[in-house]
Amino acid sequence: MKLRSKHVLRLASWLLLATSASAVGLAVRHAVVASAKLPDGPVELVWDKAACAACGMHVGEPGFAAQLTTKDGDTLAFDDPGCCFLYVEEHQPDIHAMWFHHHREKRWLSRHAVAFARLEVTPMGFGIAAVEVGQPGSLDFEAAKRLCVERTSGHP
User: Are 139 and 116 in contact (CB under 8 A)?
Assistant: First the structure.
């Protein structure tokens, strides 16, 4: 009888220890996930190595690049603003932020600071490139998005 109660006591101690370790592990995991912060700005791309999330081409021309970060923390790169617009239209991701590389300058523009200039030649033929809001003759975000989504050519 005494042997059995020692065995039960030992088993209960091990179960308590295992449960405590699991609880600590879950608490640590929750703290790490909760403290993971989504990027405040665009993520650095490796030009000619990053692949466009929409068409699969390499993102090689910074002046036409775009990227978006989802609320899950995934960052997607695009080789043309039109590819970004089509991806959003087709996949409806839960977007944290969108960035468009300025066509002529080495900097990124947020979704709220971007407008689009019309160009003859662009990587995927959508005919737009990112410029700052207020640029004469530029398209606003929604007009550029409509233009790209309504296109039937220039994208696989």
Answer: yes
Please give the Cα distance from 116 to 136 (Å, whole number): 10
Instruction: State the Rg of the chain over Cα.
Output: 25
Collapse the DSSP code of 21 into the 3-class scheme (helix H, G, I; strand E, B; otherwise coil) and give the result.
helix
Please indicate, yes or no, if residue 107 is contained in any of the structural domains: yes
Q: Is residue 95 part of a domain?
A: yes
Give the β-pairing of 114-118 and 128-132: antiparallel
Q: How many helices (H) and strands (E) does the chain have?
A: 3, 6
Q: pTM for the whole thing? A: 0.75
89 to 11, 52, 83, 145, 152: CA distances (angstroms): 57, 15, 10, 9, 14
Over residues 32-75, the pLDDT tens digits come to: 444 478 998 999 999 999 999 999 999 999 999 999 999 999 99
For residue 46, is it within any domain?
no
The domain tally of the chain equals 2
Domain ranges, residue 10 = 1-36
Segment 74-102, tens digit of pLDDT: 999 999 999 999 999 999 999 999 999 99
CA 150/CA 131 separation, integer angstroms: 21
